[in-house]
Amino acid sequence: MNRYFWILGGFAALVALLAVGLGLNPRDVPSPLVGKPAPAFNLNVLATPDKTLGPKDMQGKVWLLNVWASWCVSCRAEHPVLVEFSKKVDVPLIGLNYKEVRGDGAFDMSKMPADEERKLAFQRANKWLADHGDPYKLTVMDLDGRVGIDYGVYGVPETYVIDKSGVIRMKHTGPITPEILGKKIMPLLAELNK
Amino acid sequence: MKRQFLIALFVFGAFFGSTAAFANAATEAATAADPVAEKRLQKLSEELRCLVCQNQTIADSNAELAQDLRREVRGMIKDGKSDQEIVDFMVTRYGDFVLYRPPVKGITLLLWGGPVALMLFGLFALRGYLRRRASQINAEDKPLTAAEASRADALLKEIDQK
């Protein structure tokens, strides 16, 4: 009887371990950037390509940085949530367009000159925002994904919450759902804006 | 049945053969230009995890991000950065998860110590089992007590009488 108890107990422990382990999201890798200053960048603004924007320009404000691209399927799912957010909440949402052209995979980059990539990227990003609505205060263009590497981007969409002193307070990988917005992001924004 | 197996084997071989060839073509030119740097790149990228396809190194993976990271590592090697500096660059951006050999610290203790702890537990369990079994065998080998002996005698007599 005692022996069966042990076997059953071991089995139950294994089931519990697997239930917890398989329930975790393997894509959700904790970012080492949380609690650190947002990496600097200076990228061209989508609407005004002759101007640039960086985290320095946002100093003193609580803001969101949302990484997106028109080829990103999950971004499409997330987009209505962001549009709704931008209508209701007075927190600047900055878009970081990540590898608009070279991330697509539909283009042979070895044959595309840089200025053509640039032109196409701005064109595609503008069209996407015109078609789906533009929740962003501004969007900056990370054509080669170099800034994305500094932010540890590995799966678009990703969203960063950055506080008044320019420190990253939260990172969310994957599309923002109304639930994540309501339970995690909104309370944090309220706290940071206190 | 056998034919199906051969076809499957062929498809498998063709697929992996072609991806290997693809990876080679991309790096061949760079290797020719600077074999020492390429060797370092190869060694470093075998230690770094690709975060898109998480069970591949950035050396194995052909994901966009892995290509970008290889390019980044190549650039840092060219700039004369040390291996440690390059690894630190990756860790500050992607965390310890990017390392195939994570450092030993609080949160990774179970990862590093778990197998040893499980083995020790197994050894103790085995020792307990062997001891119990030995004492059981010893118990069976003991001479009969007086009461047992007289009962055995009685039973044997009963059989003899029949």
Detailed description of the structure:
The complex is a heterodimer of chains A (194) and B (162). Chain A has 194 residues and is of the alpha/beta class. Chain A is 40% helix and 16% strand. Chain A has one domain (31-192): 3-Layer(aba) Sandwich (Glutaredoxin). Chain A has helices at 2-23, 73-88, 114-132, 146-150, 178-192; strands at residues 43-44, 52-53, 63-68, 93-98, 138-142, 158-162, 168-173. The termini of chain A are far apart. The mean pLDDT of chain A is 91. Chain B has 162 residues and is an all-alpha fold. Helix content of chain B is 73%, strand content 0%. Chain B contains six helices and no strands. The longest helix of chain B has 33 residues, at 109-141. The A-B interface holds A 26, 29-33, 36, 99, 102-103, 105, 145, 149-152, 154-155 and B 51-52, 54, 64-65, 68-69, 72, 91-97.
Which characteristics define this entry?
A: 194 residues, 5-stranded mixed beta sheet, two-stranded antiparallel sheet, 5 helices, 16% strand, B: 162 residues, mainly alpha
TL;DR?
The complex is a heterodimer of chains A (about 190) and B (about 160). Chain A is α/β, with parallel strands linked by helices. Helices cover about 40% and strands about 15% of the residues of chain A.
Largest sheet of chain A: 5 strands, mixed
Helix coverage percent of residues of chain A?
A: 25-40%
Task: Note the overall shape of chain B.
Answer: elongated
Average pLDDT rating of chain A = 91
* Tally of separate helices of chain B: 6
Straight-line distance between termini of chain A: 61 Å
Radius of gyration of chain A: 20 Å
Lay out the secondary structure:
The complex is a heterodimer of chains A (194) and B (162).
Chain A: H1 2-23, E1 43-44, E2 52-53, E3 63-68, H2 73-88, E4 93-98, H3 114-132, E5 138-142, H4 146-150, E6 158-162, E7 168-173, H5 178-192
Parallel strand pairs in A: 3-4, 4-5
Antiparallel strand pairs in A: 1-2, 3-6, 6-7
Chain B: H1 2-33, H2 35-45, H3 64-78, H4 83-94, H5 109-141, H6 146-161
